[in-house]
Design a protein that fits this description.
The protein is elongated, with a radius of gyration of 44 Å. The chain contains four helices and no strands. The longest helix has 76 residues. It has 151 residues and is mostly helical. It starts with 9 loop residues before the first helix and ends with a helix. It comes from Hypoxylon rubiginosum. This is DASH complex subunit Dad2-domain-containing protein.
Length: 151
């Protein structure tokens, strides 16, 4: 660090040359001590500010990760919602294949509606657990038949 070439203020120059050197040096040292203590307090405050800033930065990074997850989820939901019109159109097309009875009374029509075949399954999704699920479904069907036969 380079020393400053400026001159000392007149009250400091006079104090060093006067006969009251002891009393002024005590005043200067107490002023310097107060300044040092002030700087120490400032340093502590700066350290606390640094720690708090680091905590805020960590929280912001966590928030960024959560927002990225939320964004990905939102994109997935948008894709699903965007495909619903295709699903509804396919259901409509499958439902159009169901024959509608003509020239029938309302009572006959209601009876026929109860017996009308439903459209074929539109989507079949293979599962790796299909044999276990099929066995479980068959067991449930047997139990249901046994319980209805006993009643």
């Amino acid at each position: 660090m380079a020393f400053s070439s400026r001159t000392l203020p007149s009250h400091l120059r006079q104090g060093s040359t006067s006969s009251n050197f002891g009393s002024q040096s005590t005043g200067q040292s107490s002023a310097l001590l107060a300044r040092v203590n002030e700087k120490k307090a400032e340093l502590e405050n700066l350290k606390e500010l640094r720690d708090l800033s680091a905590a805020v930065a960590n929280q912001m990074e966590a928030l960024e990760q959560k927002l990225a997850t939320l964004s990905d989820g939102t994109e997935a939901i948008a894709t699903v919602v965007g495909n619903w019109h295709n699903v509804l159109r396919a259901i409509n097309m499958a439902s159009a294949k169901i024959p509608n009875p003509k020239n029938a009374d309302e009572s006959e029509q209601k009876a026929q509606e109860d017996t009308l075949p439903l459209p074929q399954t539109l989507v079949r999704i293979p599962t790796e657990h299909a044999p276990a699920l099929q066995a479980q479904a068959e067991e449930a069907l047997e139990n249901e038949q046994n319980s209805s036969a006993v009643s």
